[in-house]
Write a structure and sequence with these properties.
Layout lengths: L3 H16 L6 E3 L11 E11 L5 E6 L9 E19 L7 H12 L3 H9 L2 E11 L10 E19 L5 E5 L4 E5 L1
Parallel strand pairs: 1-2
Antiparallel strand pairs: 2-4, 3-4, 4-6, 5-6, 7-8
Helix pairs in contact: 1-2, 1-3
């Protein structure tokens, strides 16, 4: 099952590695805090969204389980999670700087160390891109902005335990006897 905190950490590591920016310059979009000075990147996570057919149900027996919890009912499924990386650059960096950095981030997603971080967080990159430049009014000294959209597969799982019927005791009222069925 995908650990959300581990996925967030893997995503932040990806962007920091690709940009070379320190921790303070790459933040989660949902964080509550001051806006970092430019340049910086903001990572947003949306979803997960159900993918494909019904989730898989599995049932198993745990012989070492405590009495009353030997049967394991598990349901697991695949999900798709959308990630956006918004890149904001200095006003003097030029109109295309944010777009170039966002493209570098997309390219770095396939590096072995980044892919290993995604695997460790139980998420799998589907695609990194497209990159969209968000143009601003010229000659106003406004920061450059671009957005990278990426999609990941993640998994989810729920589990509960139940006991099994070890014996049945029934009373035969016609013959006044107790019958046990093992």
């Amino acid at each position: 099952m995908t650990d959300v905190a581990a996925m967030e950490a893997a995503l932040l590591t990806w962007v920091r590695t690709a940009t070379g920016w320190p921790e303070a310059q790459v933040v989660l979009a949902a964080e509550d805090g001051p806006r970092p000075p430019a340049p910086y990147a903001r990572v947003g996570i949306a979803g997960p969204t159900h993918v494909g057919g019904p989730d898989e149900a599995r049932h198993s027996y745990d012989s070492g389980g405590a009495a009353g919890s030997e049967i394991v009912h598990a349901v697991c499924g695949q999900r798709e999670t959308a990630v956006t990386v918004e890149v904001i650059t200095d006003a003097g960096a030029g109109a295309s700087a944010a777009r170039v950095i966002a493209d570098q981030i997309a390219t770095a997603a396939r590096l072995p160390t980044i892919a290993a971080g995604f695997r460790a967080a139980d998420c799998s990159l589907i695609e990194a891109g497209p990159v969209r430049a968000i143009p601003d009014v010229l000659k106003t000294g406004v920061h450059g902005r671009a957005v990278l959209e990426a999609r990941f597969y993640t998994t989810t799982e729920a589990e509960e335990r139940a006991g099994y019927i070890a014996a049945i005791e029934a009373t035969d009222t016609t013959h006044s006897r107790v019958v046990e069925v093992p």
